[in-house]
Amino acid sequence: MQQPGKAKTRRKYDADFKNEVIKMLTNGQTAAYISKALGISENLIYRWKNQNQGVKKANGEQHGLALENQQLKDRVR
After folding, report:
1. pLDDT per residue over 16-31, tens digit each?
2. pLDDT digits (tens, 9 = 90+) for 55-67
3. Burial grade of 45 (CB within 10 A; 0-12, 13-18, 19 or more)
4. Is residue 29 part of a domain?
5. CB 52 within 8 A of CB 22
6. Number of domains the chain is built from
7. Is pTM beyond 0.85 here?
8. If exposure means fewest CB atoms within 10 Å of the residue's CB, which of 31, 39, 45, 53 is most exposed?
9. Residue 4 falls within a domain, yes or no?
10. Alpha-carbon span 44 to 52, nearest angstrom
């Protein structure tokens, strides 16, 4: 329980730590196990997973757009 007068501080995690947690999750370990082992919440793990999937999707869309753009340029030539 939090003591009166003390503000709870937020912990910050670097990208490498987040990527390792996501790797653990994709390797078959459960979010419950990871959260207990590392002392982080399951919700945080799922948030990082969803953010990572969004980044991958955005990168894939950018690659697809770049490829389509190059094909159109080739066609115009």
Report:
1. 999 999 999 999 999 9
2. 777 677 777 777 8
3. buried
4. yes
5. yes
6. 1
7. no
8. 39
9. no
10. 12
